[in-house]
Amino acid sequence: MAGVSFKDVRKTYDNKIEVIHGVDMTIADGEFIVIVGPSGCGKSTLLRMVAGLERITGGEISIGERVVNELEPKDRDIAMVFQNYALYPHMTVYENMAYGLKIAKVPKAEIDQRVRDAAKTLELGQLLERRPRQLSGGQRQRVAMGRAIVRKPAVFLFDEPLSNLDAKLRVQMRLEIKRLQRELGVTSIYVTHDQVEAMTLADRLIVMNAGIADQIGTPMDVYDRPASVFVAGFIGSPAMNFLAGRVAEGGRAIELAGQGGARATLALARATTAAAGAAVAVGLRPEHLAPADGGPLELTVELAEPLGADSLLHGRFGESRETVTVRLPGHVRANPGETRRFTVDPGHVHLFDSQTGKRLADA
Amino acid sequence: MEKRVAFNERWLPYLLVSPQILITLVFFFWPSGQAIWQSVLLEDAFGGNSRFVFLDNFTHLLSDKDYYASARLTLVFSALVASVGLGVSLLLAVMADRIIRGATAYKAFLVWPYAVAPAVAGVLWGFLFNPSVGIVAWSLAAIGIEFNYVINGNQALALVVIAAVWNQVSYNFLFFLAGLQAIPKSLIEAAAIDGAGPGRRFWDIVFPLLSPTGFFLLVVNIIYAFFGTFGVVDSLTKGGPAKATEILVFKVYNDGFRGQDLGGSAAQSVILMIVVIALTVVQFRFIERRVHY
Ligand SMILES: Nc1ncnc2c1ncn2[C@@H]1O[C@H](COP(=O)(O)OP(=O)(O)OP(=O)(O)O)[C@@H](O)[C@H]1O
Ligand SMILES: [Mg+2]
User: Fold this and answer.
1) Residue B277 is part of a domain; what is its CATH number?
2) What is the ipTM of this complex?
3) What pLDDT is stored for residue A168 in this prediction?
4) How many CA atoms lie within 13 A of A11 on its CB side?
């Protein structure tokens, strides 16, 4: 059992392009950390540096008390589950799970015990003599998990382990991974670009953007107080709406741009530190916009999408350029061109610097 | 689903395949038939008459010490060609697989030898090792090794093996390289995390996954050593010195065209024909049942 810590970790590939620009973080023992971000942002690279499959070109990674920069993968006390499972095709399920233990020269009886225990936990008992090609995707996934847990490592690493499964199986396996990790209490680092997986699995999230950890925090933290426009837009579905605005009333309200004659102002729960008149990006989540007669925001509907439980309205506020999405519970019918008024709770207004994209602090 | 092409004219498909069939008939079935027919005849030494002798040529052959010597030599020779050829090309392929940059150039260089005809390969190597003017023989002499394949039978065999292997290595290399590149990198990485060092990863993971390719190449190389090396032997040693390199396929030629024993030579080719048919059957069987992981 061990925690993991990153100190200014950087990665430059052979082509001299730096793809990880300094990640700092400390992962506690037993914590479930999810690295989430768009394709190409460096999630796999970061994970593979922990595994020892990529050289660490700057900074330090420690597992437990040991700096592992120069250690071989086998000496790092980790186990990894790959996206394509990477099961050995010429070995049976049993042999796949036993391979690492066999190399570690664990006594035969103990190998047998551990493999059978893991098989029981993962309901693989009937499949031990099969070869990977005789298994379904979900079963292969389980075997890959089994291979990881029999070794009783200090850290589990997962690189998009569920992305080859269909939606239903993904939900099922997600729950199973969560349950297993809770049971075993093993520190886990899990890479995904699926935000539902990220939100549901993580104790804490790392939201990566182009080689930088934009925000590290609990899922609710990240959702409630996104640190940047990027994080705000990436976490939450449908994505947060952004509107241009200006700080007004000495920092206690925001005046939205492009609302024509009818000026729209949003009150803030707490005054912002930004100077009066400063240009800001205002973030409003679709689910936080509530219908209200006489509300400050007038939506001109362009399209209504029924989702069953909810309905989405797409359109624009006033004469602003940005399209926005509103999420309403239940069945809502609206014709294109119709207008509706909305309001938002002051606690749900997010402000970002329009230049840097960083969240603006409260006073 | 099977795709069928519909021809409007019934005779057109036959016309289209007829050149291939004609070539096979003229250059394969006809000579084979002739060989079988010859193998049961005894040709008069001065030409003209021939006599039907039933299986006498075969019984004679099977009690001939020289024939067994040649057969034994062929086994040794093909074992050497196949093992050295597969070993060297696997080594080259493993090294090429590691290279990312410049891999195409490296591959192209390694493929060239295959474009050289066996007879030309023989001339090339004969020249390099020529006892009086060959640069390699000369260098070997400078470090105190006397290399003269014209009089030393073992050295002649070694040289024929080298030339034959050199000619075939590219072919093996390409198949091995393709086989290696088809192994997902993540398997190797998973094995590394499981604690296997480079050697262990090769033997436990790469080697088993490469074995279908290896088996296929083994059969191809044995067939090559049995039959394809005629040009190399002919241009290098002509079976000499003192039959030290007279492999079966060369003995067929020697006995038939030099020794004028057409019946005996034909009997030998019939036996070789049976060998090649057997090997081909093995190969087809294998391709049909090829293991797909
Ligand atoms: N071996 C490599 N050599 C050079 N550049 C690489 C290499 N591997 C990855 N990169 C680059 O590093 C960046 C990060 O890649 P990485 O695979 O970590 O992304 P990712 O976040 O895992 O993306 P995805 O969600 O698509 O898996 C990308 O810009 C990629 O092009
Ligand atoms: Mg990735």
Assistant:
1) 1.10.3720.10
2) 0.83
3) 87
4) 25
